[in-house]
Amino acid sequence: MTGRIRMRALVLVTAALASPVGAQMPRECGPAPSGTTATEQLDRAMRVMGVPHDGSILHFTSEGRTVQDFQSDRTYPPFFSAMQTAETWYDPATRAERASIAWLYPRGGAPARVSITDGRSVWLEQQGQLREVPAFDPFSRPQRDLNPWSVVGDWVAAADARVVGTCPYRDDDRLVLQRPVHGRPERLFLDRESGFPVKLDRTVPHETWGQLHEEVLWSTWIEAGPSAFLPAAAFRIRDGDVDMERTIGEIELMPASDAAMPKLPAKAEGAEEASILGNPEATRPDTIRIGEGAFLLAHRMYNEALVGSGDTVWVMDATLNEARARQDSAWVARLFPGARHVAVVVTDLAWPHIGGVRFWVGRGATIFSHRQSEAFLRRLVERRWTLEPDALEKARRVSDVPFRFVAVEDGADVAGGRVALRHINGLSSEGALMALDRSSGFLWAGDWIQMTDRPSMYAAEVVRAVEREGFAPTRVGAEHIPITDWRTVADMNPRSR
Question: Which CATH superfamily is domain 38-258 in?
Answer without folding.
Answer: Lipoprotein localisation LolA/LolB/LppX (2.50.20.10)
